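Ticket #4471: structure export looks truncated?
Reporter: QA, pipeline team
Priority: medium

Steps to reproduce: submit the single chain below to the structure queue and open the exported record.
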Amino acid sequence: MALVLSWSTMMTLRTVSSALLAVGLVLSIFRFTYRIWLRRFWVEDAWAVVAFLCGIATLTSTWTYTNGEQIISFWVYSFTFPSVVWAVRESILFSIVRIVYGTQHLRRLTLGLGVLFSCFWAGLVAQKAWQYGHDTSWYNTVPNVHAFQSQPMVMFELIADCLSDAILIVLPLRLLWSLKLPKRQRRMILAIFSSSIVVTIVSIFRGVCQISKYGTVLNTATSFQTAMSLLVCNLLVTVTFLYRIFGFADADDGVSSDDDDYTTRTTTRTTTRPVFTTVDLDDLASGSDEGRK
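Actual output as written to the record:
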């Protein structure tokens, strides 16, 4: 049974998803400004920059696809959408390492998972580039230019999404279970866990629409997944900032301010150079001789 949305419903949902995506872009700008001001711009923030740039391209191609230039817009959207999602996953992954002062084993595990995510991302983009470029008959589809992914590509993307989201859910739970963390770190880990569940639900729904080839619903689900991913990417920084601003941080955490990556601004260390005094022994000797005279 085909699931079709009316044009007015589609435009309403597209407007809502675009508004959420715009909010995510604004939060990204706030995040970058705040992290640079703290002088704590790290790997997770670099991945957030990638998601931000791809998010701008995604938002632009969403509306240019409606107003014309459908082929170019479809190409741009096909590559920038997965780039936003996977860059957000990389950012969330590396934020876990920053929050938990990880051991060498944890850092190696995270690096390996980061490489795995990058391989999934590159594999998906390569498959899309080959399929869409190899057979361009979809250029002539009406009324709107569109191409469905092949069944193996859909299964690959769905497996990659489920596996990566499962990792981002299980890893925080594992840290909460095995490590004795201060309250601040536990709250941050729980925030990552909750946000990962939200992205997973939207991702599974989009995967079902893709397998069933619900074209109109698929476009809407894709737009919402992009928007939710970008919002989740900046959730940790924004919520922690508001948490500090409104004074909800209590003093019973039992940790110093250095344990909270968003609490204090990093100050530049200054070193005091020793001051040396030069004494001319010849002048002392001549002065003592004059005194004797």
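Status: closed, not a bug. The export was complete when the record was re-opened. Leaving a note from the reviewer for reference: The chain is about 75% helix and 0% strand.
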